[in-house]
Amino acid sequence: MKMKMVITACMALALSSCAGEFNKVFKSQDYDYRYEFAKQCFAQGKYGQAVTLLQDMVTVMKGHNGGDNAQESLYMLAMAEYMSGDYESAAQTFRKYTTSYPKGIYVEKASFYVGESLYESAPEPRLDQSPTNGAINAYQQFLDLFPDSELRPEAQRKLFELQDKLIMKEYLNAKLYFNLGGYFGNINDNNESNYTACIITAQNALKYYPFTSLREDFSLLIMKSKFQLAENSSEEKLIDRYRDAEDECYGFINEFPDSKNKELAERYIAKCKKVVGD
Q1: Which of 101, 105, 214, 225 is geometrically suited to a Cys-Cys bond with 198, CB 3.0 to 4.6 A?
Q2: Would you tell me how many other CB atoms lie within 10 Å of the CB of residue 101?
Q3: How far apart are CA 12 and CA 144, in angstroms?
Q4: What is the mean pLDDT of each successive set of 10 residues along the chain, which is 278 residues long?
Q5: What gap in Å lies between CA 90 and CA 67, rounded to an integer?
Q6: 139 and 155 in contact (C-beta within 8 Å)?
Q7: How many Cα atoms are found within 13 Å in the side-chain-facing hemisphere of 271?
Q8: Of the candidates 130, 140, 141, 200, which has an alpha carbon nearest to the alpha carbon of residue 166?
């Protein structure tokens, strides 16, 4: 018990000593000392302390000792923010580095880590995808600027992963429109527009991402939506919509001959032929 108390006391003393040293450094006007201590904090994984010291040092170092450490201090601040999980601030600071030092010694990594920071902020597909779009743009800019970078494969991998997230977002939107279209029962302006919205959303997704692994899923939604529009159509639109649905079914079977939904497409075709009379 005594030993435990001694250890606890020693730990408390050490922490107090560390805190005291940090406060001393933080208040010091010896910028070289502060800068070296900030580097030490970073090396030891004390990223919060490093950020606190570096935030005002970035400006100071520009005019201190000819600004030799200005680049390093800005890049280290960005990395400290990134390592501490403050991805929004990190993205802004990395971007600031790339604009402040377009030919700087850390510009390649800073450009890459703009994407990395936004990648870490990207939400799951059901939520707003603005950070995802930002990360995709950042990775694409990095790939354009540094086509021979060793980081290129990682940037490409994550860019494709983020694109898949956007595609899934579009698929969930299209599926929601389809489900809402059938929710109201008999056809009316609301669910007709929902089926139409489903078709447009899915078609746009296939236009922008033609090689997506969800191509069949989008195509199925288009086919089902067109058939539902025909099934519930007004008299003046009936024939045209059944013909459109029939064409869509044939297109689906041609593109996905082994689909588990082939039988559904064939049932739709049979119904369309009865109405159209072909």
Answers
A1: 225
A2: 16
A3: 52
A4: 42 44 64 86 94 83 64 94 96 96 95 97 87 95 97 96 94 95 59 89 96 96 96 89 97 98 97 88
A5: 22
A6: yes
A7: 18
A8: 130
CB-CB contact of 233 with 272 (8 Å) = no
Q: What's the half-sphere exposure (Cβ side, CA atoms, 13 Å) at 208?
A: 12
Q: What is the residue-wise DSSP string for 236-260?
A: GGHHHHHHHHHHHHHHHHHH-TT-T
Tokens 């929601």, located at residue? 176
Report the amino acid identity of residue 255: E
Q: Which residue has the tokens 């279209």?
A: 181
Residue 213, classed as helix, strand or coil, is: coil
- Please report the DSSP string for 125-181 in residue order: TTS--HHHHHHHHHHHHHHHH-TT-TTHHHHHHHHHHHHHHHHHHHHHHHHHHHHHH
200 to 68, 129, 197, 203, 221: CA distances (angstroms): 56, 19, 5, 5, 10
Distance CA 162, CA 142 (A): 15
Sort 242 into a burial class: Cβ within 10 Å, 0-12 / 13-18 / 19+.
buried
User: 3-state DSSP: the chain helix, strand, coil percent, rounded to 5?
Assistant: 80, 0, 20
